[in-house]
Amino acid sequence: MNFMNKLVLLLLVVSLLGALGSTASSYCDSEVPEAAGTVCNGTESKYLASSQDSCTDTANNSTLVEAETVNITSNSRIYPAYTAAPAEEGNYPAIVLIHSFRGFEPGYQTMVNRMAEEGYVVIAPFWQAYSDSPSDTEVEALIRNSTAYLETRDDVNSERLGLTGFCAGGRYTMLFLPQIEEFESGVAWYGFPYMGGSEIQPDIPASLIDQLDAPMLIIHGTRDQYSNITDIYRYAGELDAADRYFELKVYQGEPHGFMLTEEGELSESFVAQDAYGEMITFFDRTLNNSTM
C-alpha cells in the first residue's frame, strides 16, 4: 500500500471515530424509539428520545434548575418527556410545552430551562415518539397524561396549570385549551386555527371557540408563510365575537418559527427575547393572579 493510500485510509478512520464520538456525546442509550420530525418549511430534523431510567439532562448547568427526562405512559405506550423545575423547594405553577413539527430541538430545552428559572415546573412531551404525524386523539391523551403527571408532583400547584405550543403545538394549544379544563391559560405560537377536517385531525380549533373559557395569548409573525396572518386576524375576530378573552401579539416581518434559529437553537434576537417575555408575563398574570 503506497503512502497516499495509507493517508486516505488514516483520514477515513479519524473521521469515523470523530462522528462516533459526537453521537455518543449528544445522546444516551435508550430503548425508546427514535422520532423524526419535518418542519413546516420542509427541512428535516431528528432527535433521539431518551428515557428517565437511562438518561438525565446534563446540558443544564444552572444551580437554580433541576432537569431530567421522565417517562409518560399514555394509551399503553411510553413517551419520553423533558422536564425542568426550580431547584428550590416550593409549590409552583406548571406548564405543558408542545414542541413544533420539527421535534424537540435544543432551543426548546433551553427555553424549558429558562422557564424553570422563572419559577415554573415545565414538561415537554415528545409527541412524535411513534409517528411524525400522530392523530389528535393520541396527542390529546398524551397531554392529559402529562398533566396528570404534573399533578402528582409535590412541587406543582395543580390549580395553576398552563399550556403552550409552537407551530403544530400552536394548533394543539388552540385545539385543546378549550377541551382540557385543567388548563387555566395558554399561549399559542404561530398556530393553525383552521387546520383540521381530516381523519387524524377531525376538529378545527376555530370550531371550538364556544368551549374556550381560559384566557389565551396568540403570538404570530406577519410574514408567516405557512399560517397566514389573515387567518390569525380572522380567528381573533371570532374570539372577540364570542366574547372569549384573548391577547394578540403580532411581530411585523417575522416568519414562521421565529423563536428558533435554522440550527434549532433558541434565537437571541430582539423579537425572540421580547416574545419570550410576553409569554412569561402572560403566564405570570393568568396563573398567579386569581382575579383574572
Description:
With 292 residues, the protein is of the alpha/beta class. It has a single domain, classed as Alpha/Beta hydrolase fold, catalytic domain (Rossmann fold), CATH 3.40.50. The chain has six helices and ten strands, in the order αβββββαβαβαββαβα. The strands form two sheets. Strands 3-4-6-5-7-8-9-10 form an eight-stranded mixed beta sheet, with helices on both faces. The N terminus is likely disordered.
Low-confidence parts, pLDDT < 50 over ≥5 residues? 1-59
| Percent range of helical residues | 25-40%
**What structural class results from the helix and strand content?**
alpha/beta
Number of domains: 1
- Read across the widest sheet, the strand sequence of neighbours is 3-4-6-5-7-8-9-10
What's the CATH superfamily, by name? Alpha/Beta hydrolase fold, catalytic domain
Query: What number is the mean pLDDT?
Result: 84
Looking at the overall shape, the CATH architecture is: 3-Layer(aba) Sandwich
Helix count?
6
> How many strand elements?
10
From the structure above, extract its key features:
alpha/beta; 10 strands; 6 helices; Rossmann fold; 8-stranded mixed sheet; 292 residues
Write the layout of secondary structure elements.
Elements (H helix, E strand, L loop, with lengths): L2 H24 L8 E4 L5 E4 L17 E10 L2 E10 L5 E7 L7 H12 L3 E5 L10 H17 L3 E11 L1 H9 L6 E7 L26 E6 L7 H13 L4 E6 L18 H19 L4
Parallel strand pairs: 5-6, 5-7, 7-8, 8-9, 9-10
Antiparallel strand pairs: 1-2, 3-4, 4-6
